[in-house]
Design a protein that fits this description.
Strand content: 5-15%
Largest sheet: 2 strands, antiparallel
Structural class: alpha+beta
Distance between the termini: 36 Å
Oligomer: single chain
Mean pLDDT: 82
Length: about 110
């Protein structure tokens, strides 16, 4: 799998490197958005709205919809006036997510 190739569980949503549909199920949509933000956006680079749109257009024709989903999922953050976007760092998708239920987390090995 190349850096831009989708993982096997998301491959059905792509054709020839283009996103052909967005999953309806929240968990799958989140996985797709995490893949997009991880492969398309550099966490060290601030982006203008135009740059975000141009980047998203490389995978799907509805860049506004994808940009909105990424911002709503807090995978991209933007300034209040919308002039600058950044890949989120606090919830960065390069690190595994913490368990939703702390009680289900396994204690560290002794």
């Amino acid at each position: 799998m190349s850096a831009h190739e989708p993982p096997a569980d998301l491959a059905a949503f792509f054709s020839d490197g283009r996103l052909v549909s967005v999953p309806r199920r929240p968990a799958r949509r989140t996985a797709l958005l995490e893949h997009l933000v991880r492969t398309l956006f550099d966490p060290e680079h601030p982006y203008t709205e135009r740059e975000v749109n141009e980047t998203l257009l490389t995978v799907h024709s509805d860049s506004a919809m994808l940009r909105r989903y990424l911002v709503e999922a807090r995978l991209l953050t933007r300034t209040r006036d919308g002039s600058s976007y950044r890949r989120a760092v606090a919830d960065d998708c390069d690190t595994p997510a913490a368990p939703a239920d702390p009680a289900s987390a396994q204690p560290p090995a002794a």
